[in-house]
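thought: fold this chain, then report.
action: predict
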Amino acid sequence: MLEDREADAELVIHALQAAGFEPDVTRVDNREAYAAALDPGLDLVLADYNMPAFDALTALDMLNESGYDLPFIIVSGSIGEDVAVEAIHRGAADYLLKDRLTRLPSAIAQALEKKNLREENRRADRALRESQERFERVFAEGAVGMALVGEDYHFIDVNEALCQMLGYEKSELLGLSVQDITHPDDYTVAANLSKQMFAGQVNGYRVEKRYMKRTGEEVWVQLSVSLVRDHKGAPMYSIGVIQDITERRRAEQDLQFMALHDTLTELPNRTLFADRLQQAILSANREGGSFGLMVMDMDSFKEVNDSLGHQSGDLLLKQMSSRLTAILRESDTVARLGGDEFGVLPTGTINADLTQLTARKILSAMQTPFEIGEAAIETGLSIGIAQFPDHGRDAETLMRRADVAMYVAKRNKTGCAVYSAEQDEHSAGRLALMGEMRQAIRSDQLELHYQPKVDVKTRTTFGVEALVRWRHPVRGLLPPDQFIPLAEQSDLMSSLARWVLTEAIAQVQAWRKGGIELSMAVNLSAANLHEASLPELIGDLLTSYDVDPSVLTVEITESGIMVAQADRTVRRLSDMGVRVSIDDFGTGYSALSYLKALPVDEIKIDRSFVHDMANNPDDAAIVQPTIDLGHNLRLHVIAEGVENEETWRLLDSLGCDSAQGFLVSPALPAGELETWLRASEWGGARNAEKPAARVGHGARVR
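observation:
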């Protein structure tokens, strides 16, 4: 540390210790001592700008001349913009003022990370220079398969790893061609690419294909091929690197299954059901046929959950799924649409009478109680029927009208109802609620509750997720699932998002003034991402309330991030410094390319995978690769729905970064959360005497 004032040096050391560092500091204040202290074993240099006989720019020049790769950060009482720019131009990693030392830990972390990246790049360069010398040894001893292949597609040489991968002796493989070990369905693509490469049309290629082991078993491989030429440039042979990716492909198939199926029941989810409904519509249009759509939900599921607990509710859903599947034909689609709602789509041409007959068959099967532990649970279904083409010719209309009929069946306790135009009046209450919601946004009937987000390792709250509630003057406190769908069906999402963002960002400012530093997460819908003005709105609010953009996280569902406008909106928000989180990760279908291409900072593992993972090995088997995937993409991973200590410990062992759920706290109004922060072991109040390490990692309560 280059600092002439011991008191200032102590302030810097204290700030680093408060942030969790254990600094080993050598303080110098002149050119000679600085030159003697410079050493490649140091982690970094912190320098005051002005000293009686020395200055930071001169020190920076000396460091550059030494050739040591050490991050150089200027920490000064005052520094002009021109000087700061000059320092950065000469190679300084960062600069900051002494009255803003709270930024120092993050500046150091970033500088050290960049240093590590430079070291990695240098190592990569050295490895590249040495690769030619190591080639023969790597070929013989490499952990991945390697092969030299002639233009006739016959093996010239193979290594031991490839022999072990395929179960052949080396002498056997050398008597075969690539075609001999390739799955018949995969031969043409790779063979054509090989011909193009030897013809000079491409320099090499990479392809995923299936090889056949000596036993006949399939093995998925990633094949990377390049061409070796002689000194005249004529093709000699190709070098192939063959990596066994069978486990990865299985994991991808599992992820694709997860994207299209409900993890609890393994039935098709709403996404797959909608696709099959669309296919049924196309088929019926071609053939001039008819079919019925049934939407149903359980009549007493909430009571089971409330009285016997969520685990019993899950068992009931599984048994309901099995019973529906057993009643219907294997070719019929049974889907869990969400919660206790199911959909049934019989295959083939089904007239209205047959659809109703199927519905009565389902209702009859519900007369047998469900065995849940020691309890025999009797529960009915309310089934709504919409018939194509009588009740609609598109998927959205059919689903909506089946939904209307289901609510009629539930209200009238008839078990089953077929849609009719007169029934739409029964949705008047929902339309009225939609109208009341407009007034609620204007008249402060909405309120935000905040659920703590906790660092898994330190068990300390670092932020909150804002969740909207509606304090209806007649119906009482309404949760979001009772009015957000209405807003999504209308033009209210923009107004609702504006209100939530304003309240949440204003609350950050209010807490900060009261001595509480927390990051804030806000949920945005796909409709919000279509609004080109959204980044400007958020920027204006952050400026108006003097809130740093990095404090705000916007949570977007997997399906939401794949809408057309999302790419541009997310990039603009990220460029502003706002963090981006993928909410309910694993329940939609987000291509990995999107996660790599978009500036995403975080993924949230959906509660459906987390809440029972301590008891369900299948859930744990899903959570583990999701955490690994997030970390491999350098994303923060947070689990939601943590309800017990066993799940928390399991997440900790799997390397999950953060978590939230009822184990820590439900969502609380702002005032109650402040009390909770001071009283709870999770709140971080025990660290109240220390300044916050950084915004978003540890609640600071003064």
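thought: worth noting. The chain is about 45% helix and 20% strand.
final: tokens above.
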